[in-house]
Amino acid sequence: MKRKLSPLCVSGIVAAIALALIPAIAQGAESSTEKDLTLNFSQDVTMLLKLIPAGKFMMGGAKEESKIPKHEVTISKPFYMAATEVTRRQFEAFVAETGYQTDAEKRGWASFWDKPTRSNKHISGRDWRRPGYEQDADHPVACVTWNDATQFCKWLSEKTGKPVRLPTESEWEYACRAGTTTQFQWGDDPRGGDRQGRIRPAGQRNPRCHLIVQ
To answer: Domains of the chain (ranges plus CATH)?
Structure first.
């Protein structure tokens, strides 16, 4: 995956992997002083983005803990990033206007992370409309792929006139860490991440996990 995105969120207990690939970045904030940027999908649907300043952070971990050795990464330009995961309401606006069919809808199944076996499983009949657990319009969209996410960004770019794209892994981690230096964005205890996987509306988790902007 140059497809190099780390998931921005995992919407369900079963962790729909693709869900995390949606949050979009609008570039070109070098001369902007506005802290917030709002993209208008329609009269009723918008997306709030937050300004992330340029800076440096330590990415990776100790050799015995991480596949990526700890090293300094420089984010040379500020960027705007969606303040929350892309919601079902926002994704539905894209589908309604374009008639887009997601990869899961075309093939008839979605891929989910199965925690007990620590592997991906294909589950028939699951897609963003039917993820297999209860959602409403303000929950993060689930069961979407990197391809679906990039098509969403392309549409949003054309609709708003802003260059919207997905974040790189380093951009996402920089925004998510928000200046923290612990092993994970929530702390040093790996078990703390389990709490990030509960089903809830977009933006109602640890706020450090939801900022990405240029």
So the answer is: 17-209 (3.90.1580.10)
